[in-house]
Write a structure and sequence with these properties.
Elements (H helix, E strand, L loop, with lengths): L15 E4 L3 H11 L1 E7 L6 E6 L2 E6 L5 H13 L5 E10 L9 E9 L3 H5 L11 H13 L6 E8 L12 H5 L2 E5 L2 H10 L3 E11 L8 H20 L1
Parallel strand pairs: 1-4, 1-5, 5-9, 6-7, 7-8
Antiparallel strand pairs: 2-3, 3-4, 5-8, 6-9
Helix pairs in contact: 2-6, 4-7
The structure holds hypoxanthine.
The site of hypoxanthine has 10 residues, from strand 5, strand 8 and strand 9.
């Protein structure tokens, strides 16, 4: 069996999935953190691998950028492959000076400018939140690790547009606590809730909308490593 977008046989994907946007980041995570990683799908170049981490079967699946692409993979992982736990490991833009470059944001919830949930909830407002057990495990894991950067628990703003002509629309979200902007978490939390699965988003601040700093590729790799370790520990706790 395969799905329209994932060419894996039943059982080839583990119940735990790490979910980066970038398929090459999925490859890097599989090669760097997993033992015996096997490529199970490369449909549309959206690589997926399964291996083990400290004896636990874990898969890493690229999601693509944005809620529509991510939702295709999340739906198929939940519905066709019976995935139980998904941890997004991504990057985000810092929205406030409360967060610094390379800091890690563990998202307890996500707001959005997307029409996806507006259609799903017929114009009413749903509050997409993280699985509390995963959130707690991620925080506890981060407290036992010696990390290069600060860890924050707070809101992400899941935007549908990377290049927006109306940046002022970020302001009310910032005024109400949003720490970072990315493009996937709101839909991920919603889909996981609908299927009664566990989801968490962890993002590293890769660029900053206030200070206009940006990370080098090498810096992103190092801090991404801390984030992956937190994600693996939380997902397998
Ligand atoms: N905007 C949206 N998504 C992002 C950003 C950003 O500035 N940085 C990383 N992901």
């Amino acid at each position: 069996m395969s799905t329209p977008h994932i060419a894996a046989a039943p059982g080839e994907i583990a119940p735990i999935v790490l979910f980066p946007g970038d398929p090459l980041r999925a490859k890097w995570i599989a090669e760097t953190f997993l033992d015996d990683a096997v490529l199970y799908s490369q449909t549309r170049g959206m690589l997926g691998f399964t291996g083990t981490w400290q004896g636990h079967r874990v898969s890493v699946q690229g999601s693509g950028m944005g809620q529509p692409s991510m939702s295709i993979y999340a739906n198929e992982l939940f519905d066709q492959y019976d995935v139980q736990t998904v941890v997004r490991v991504g990057s985000c833009g810092g929205l406030t000076e409360r967060v610094g470059m390379r800091d890690i944001i563990i998202a307890n919830g996500a707001c959005t400018d997307s029409g996806i949930n507006r259609v799903r909830f017929q114009g009413l407002d749903y509050a997409p939140v993280a699985d509390f057990g995963l959130l707690r495990a991620a925080v506890e894991a981060s407290e036992t690790m010696s990390l290069a950067s600060a860890v924050h628990v707070g809101l992400l703003f899941s935007s549908d547009q990377f290049y927006t002509t109306r940046p002022e629309l970020n302001d009310p979200f910032i005024a109400h606590g949003a720490l970072g902007v990315e493009m996937e978490t709101s839909a991920l939390y919603t889909l996981a809730a609908y299927r009664q699965r566990r989801a968490l988003s962890i993002c590293t601040v890769s660029d900053h909308l206030v200070t206009h700093e940006a990370t080098t590729a090498q810096e992103r790799e190092q801090t991404f490593g801390d984030m992956i370790e937190i994600a693996l520990r939380a997902a397998t706790a």
